Amino acid sequence: MISTDRWYDEITGSTATLAQLIDGTDLTRPVPTCPEWTMRQLITHVGRAHRWAAAIVTTRSAVPIPFREVPDGKLPENPREHGDWLRTGAAGVIDAVRAAGDEQVWTHPGPGPASYWARRMAHETR
Questions:
Q1: What's the half-sphere exposure (Cβ side, CA atoms, 13 Å) at 80?
Q2: Phi, psi of 3, deg, nearest 5
Q3: 92 and which of 15, 54, 87, 101 could share a cystine (Cβ 3.0–4.6 Å)?
């Protein structure tokens, strides 16, 4: 079984790689593995997903929080802030899951431990 710390490392590492990739890049460029998406759509999705999971865990929500209502879920206009915005979201979900541990929250398959979100966000970020 993979440890939660390993999931945290994956979230941090994959987010750092993505933040480095977008530095100075054309955000209208298509994502090779998701040609229907632009780089802007990808980084917005990842950054918002981290914040969404963190909000669910932090509030110990029993229901999904609407994705578009996530606090700080919009990609900053200033490109120099994009990397920090991504890294902040990753740190937020890790901190939230660490604090909650196995307390019950909403998860895709139903009520489950908050630690579910470490694995889910590691996969989402990769």
A1: 0
A2: -75, 155
A3: 54
Residue whose tokens read 């909403």: 106
Residue among 11, 50, 46, 44 nearest 28 (CA):
44
Q: Are 103 and 114 in contact (CB under 8 A)?
A: yes
* pLDDT tens-digit series, residues 17-33: 999 988 888 899 999 88
Spatial distance between the Cα atoms of 5 and 21, rounded to a whole number of angstroms: 24
Nearest C-alpha neighbor of 65 from the set 41, 40, 89, 48: 48
The beta-strand segments (E) located in 8-119 are 30-31, 34-38, 104-105, 112-113
Please give the average per-residue pLDDT across 92-105, as a whole number. 96
